[in-house]
Amino acid sequence: MVATRISGNLLHYDFSLLPQYLEVLFAKLRIAVVFGGSGDRESSVIYKTHNPRSWKSYEVVAREIAKALEEIGFKQVFVMPDDMNLPEQLQRENIHLVWLNTGGVQGYNPVCHTPALLEMLGMPYVGHNPLNSSTLDNKHAFKRELQSVGIKTAPFMIWHPSQGILRPNLHERFAIAFDEYQGPFIVKPVSGRASLHVHFVDKIEGLSQAVSEVHRATHNTALIEKYLPGREFCVAVCGYVTYAKCGFSKNPKPFAFSTVERVLESDELIFTSMDKKAITADRGKLMGAEEPQLKQELIDLARKIYWEFSLNSLVRIDVRSDANGELYVLEANPKPDLKRPTENVTSLVALGLAEYEMSYNDLIFSLLADRLDYLLTQHIGIIPHIAALLH
Ligand SMILES: Nc1ncnc2c1ncn2[C@@H]1O[C@H](COP(=O)(O)OP(=O)(O)OP(=O)(O)O)[C@@H](O)[C@H]1O
Ligand SMILES: [Mg+2]
Q1: Averaged pLDDT, 93-122
Q2: Which residue segments constitute the domains of the chain, with CATH numbers given?
Q3: Measured distance CA(56)–CA(339) in Å, rounded
Q4: How far is the CA of 137 from the centre of ligand 1 (A)?
Q5: Ligand 1 atom closest to Cα of 225?
Q6: How many angstroms separate the CA atoms of 326 and 358, rounded?
Q7: Nearest CA to ligand 1 atom 24
């Protein structure tokens, strides 16, 4: 049936063909789910160096994604780390497509290393391109871009270790960012995860020490921003193709879902690291019909970010409100946790799938199908090895 669509070597594609192409790919497409390699493993790197971002392998979740792909019907799924052996491994296993579930191994801007490597190798992937990976994982770079497209984010400044000790009262930059504002502040790494090294600083006098602590822990730039005292939310957003109720649809807008309030305890100023406290039902509350306007505002915000940054893979956007309830974007996570939900523990992304009658596997299938649809629509000429499978 597919062959009838082919003239010469040209493969025709439109969205209506996606299900039948996937039927063919189930058996043939060799997918590698890639997790974060450890610089401690022998022969993983040439020289072990420093990672400014707290390292995590994400292997458990990579295996959950791989299992979902198998349950969906893909017969050839592999799981491997992204250390220096990755190109050889991909070639040896004759991989056609990579699913990135990694924050990188080490070094600066580690989140962009593997997509950059895959770009060099000519390997298509599910994940963000190197520029978006880096922009999203560097909170200050992301915030600057947010400002340029008129999306609200807390006023901020950055301080790099080479700039010495921060003396807020002496620096013009501080006055430009904060004017007369005296605190409280948040000081955090520009590239971080799981609320690690995030400091609440009540008064200007405490800033210098908090910045030095971030420098010591990360050897990287510290971000100083106004503390937002309001409620905290997150919302996930991915591409235009979704799989739900046993069928695909291609929507005119990105799919924004799982609008969740991150519930803080009364004395909890910042959301406790999920490394310390798992995301349970009482920590992440799915927004229902009680506040339809607020929910829609979060969905619109997520879609706007997806569009403005030309994203083409999943992000989870973290948002906090000020004392007046106005929403400010904290960050967008380029590799949000995609843990398969269990009875007690879930992920912020998977929490709201039931609202769309979607399962975890449906989300995984949506992310893969969206990327294949994008590649086949926009880039068919540069994925000849996948097009060849469809002949
Ligand atoms: N400007 C701010 N005002 C109030 N709280 C903040 C601010 N910035 C960060 N926080 C708190 O610190 C937490 C972690 O911050 P952020 O989301 O920026 O970093 P992260 O460590 O990358 O988080 P994640 O766990 O989402 O990966 C937030 O969930 C929020 O509770
Ligand atoms: Mg966050």
Answers
A1: 97
A2: 3-126 (3.40.50.20), 155-226 (3.30.1490.20), 230-358 (3.30.470.20)
A3: 14
A4: 13
A5: 1
A6: 30
A7: 194
* pTM listed for this prediction: 0.94
* Distance from the alpha carbon of residue 259 to the mean position of ligand 2, in angstroms: 14
User: Which ligand neighbours the alpha carbon of 271 most closely?
Assistant: 1
Q: Which residue has a Cα nearest atom 1 of ligand 1?
A: 227
Pocket test for ligand 1, best of 234, 264, 271, 333 (most atoms within 8 A of CB): 271
Distance CA 262, CA 282 (A): 9
Where does the pLDDT of residue 3 fall: very low under 50, low under 70, confident under 90, or very high at 90 and above? Answer: very low
Query: What pLDDT score was predicted for residue 282?
Result: 79
Q: Which residues surround ligand 2, an ion (CB under 5 A)?
A: 318
Annotate 334-348 with b (16+ C-beta within 10 A) or e (fewer).
Answer: bbbbbbbbeeeebbb
- Tokens (6 digits) for 239: 């591409």
Q: Is 195 in the pocket of ligand 1 (CB under 6 A)?
A: yes
Asked if residue 97 lies in contact with residue 386, where contact means CB atoms within 8 angstroms, the answer is yes
CA dist list (Å): 302 to 12, 36, 38, 195, 368? 32, 27, 33, 21, 20
Q: What is the pLDDT of residues 45-75, one digit of tens each?
A: 999 999 888 889 999 999 999 999 999 999 9
DSSP code, position 374: H
The residue whose two tokens read 């298509």 is: 124
Residues sharing a CB contact under 8 Å with residue 192, sequence separation 6 or more, in sequence order: 53, 54, 139, 198, 218
State in Å: Cα 331 to ligand 2 middle: 6
Q: Residue 132: CB within 6 Å of ligand 1?
A: no
Ramachandran area for residue 335 (φ above 0: left; ψ -120 to 50: alpha; else beta):
beta
Spell 169-205 as b/e; 16+ CB within 10 A means b: eeeeebeebbeeeebbbbbbbbbbbeeebbbebeebe
Cβ–ligand 1 contact at 225 (below 6 Å)? yes
Contacts 24+ apart (CB under 8 A), 278-281: 278/344, 278/345, 279/337, 279/345, 279/346, 279/347, 279/348, 279/351, 280/344, 280/345, 280/346, 281/346
